[in-house]
Amino acid sequence: MKRGNIIFLNGVSSSGKTTLAKQLLKRLPEYYHYSIDDFDVVIERMEDRDNDRLIVQQQSLNVEKKKEGTAG
């Protein structure tokens, strides 16, 4: 697997991070834009805040086991 690069953009609200990210994507088409808002949505779907735990789907675990060669 090829080693990747990550570009973090940091700044206060409305400072132009998204605009800059869009311009970077035009020049670096092999990169992918993943905003903190997108990340928050993923985390919210994984959280069971009422029971203070993360939700893990069995299907995801099976896929990882197959990749590792441990699924039966």
How does the SSE layout of this entry go?
Layout (H helix, E strand, L loop, with lengths): L16 H11 L8 H11 E2 L4 E2 L3 H11 L4
Antiparallel strand pairs: 1-2
Describe this structure in words.
The protein is mainly alpha-helical. It has one domain. It is 46% helix and 6% strand. It is built from three helices and two strands, in the order H-H-E-E-H. Strand 1 and strand 2 form a beta hairpin. The chain starts with 16 loop residues before the first helix and ends with a helix.
Task: Quickly give the structural class.
Answer: mainly alpha
Computed over alpha carbons, the radius of gyration is 17 Å
- Tell me the strand percentage band: 5-15%
Assembly state: single chain
Instruction: Please tell me what the overall shape is.
Output: flat
Main sheet: which strands, in order across? Answer: 1-2
Mean pLDDT: 79
Total number of domains: 1
- Pick out the low-confidence regions: none
N-to-C order of helices and strands: HHEEH
Q: Count all strands and give the number.
A: 2
Q: Biggest sheet: strands, sense, closure? A: 2 strands, antiparallel
- N- and C-termini, Cα separation: 25 Å
Number of helices: 3
Helix content: 40-55%
Question: Summed up, what is this model?
Answer:
By secondary structure, the chain is mainly α.
Features:
72 residues, mainly alpha, 46% helix, 6% strand
